[in-house]
Write a structure and sequence with these properties.
There is one protein chain. This protein is an alpha+beta fold. The protein folds into two domains: 67 residues, Sandwich (HSP40/DNAj peptide-binding domain); 65 residues, Alpha-Beta Plaits (2-Layer Sandwich). 17% of the residues lie in helices and 37% in strands. A hairpin with a 5-residue loop joins strand 3 and strand 4.
């Protein structure tokens, strides 16, 4: 098994890719399978959240690139800043992880939350997309605000 031990910030060509859903990208200890079928173990610093494009290095020096898996997400599109703020308030009040972009919020699909937002007058779409939520006030902000996802 390949042991991935550290996230690196220097751009280097990868030897493999690892596609993970958000629920796995928040774990510092994880057994997984690379996209080419090889077994891998994550042994990372606690509290690190892996984002699309992050590079991990193995004990042997192999470089693995993280790919954010497509997941079922609910998407709210809205040009009304006040209505969007209300939606974020109500979702945040329920401790829902949000991906926030200009005019758009995304969260892991939940039909109950979708119905709540529809009652507020918002339109909710359901699609398969990578999910990269805000890391939070105490998280690593270096990776957040990727507005190019839209």
């Amino acid at each position: 098994m390949i042991n991935l031990i550290k996230k690196i910030t220097v751009s280097r060509p990868e030897n493999a890719t690892l596609t993970l859903p958000f629920s796995s990208r928040v774990k510092s200890r994880l057994r997984a399978v690379l996209d080419d079928g090889r077994d891998v173990g994550l042994f990372l610093a606690r509290g690190e959240v892996l984002q699309q494009g992050d590079l991990l290095v193995s004990e042997a020096g192999d470089i693995v690139k993280i790919v954010a898996a497509e997941e079922t997400v609910s998407i709210v599109l809205c040009d009304d800043a006040c209505l969007m703020a209300r939606a974020c308030y109500h979702l945040g009040n329920r401790h829902v992880s949000l991906q926030i972009n200009p005019g758009r919020i995304q969260y892991l699909h939940d039909h109950v939350l979708d119905d709540m937002l529809k009652i507020l007058g918002l339109t909710v779409l359901v699609e398969k997309r990578p999910f990269e939520p805000e890391s939070g006030a105490y998280g690593n902000q270096a990776s957040s605000h990727h507005y190019s996802h839209a």
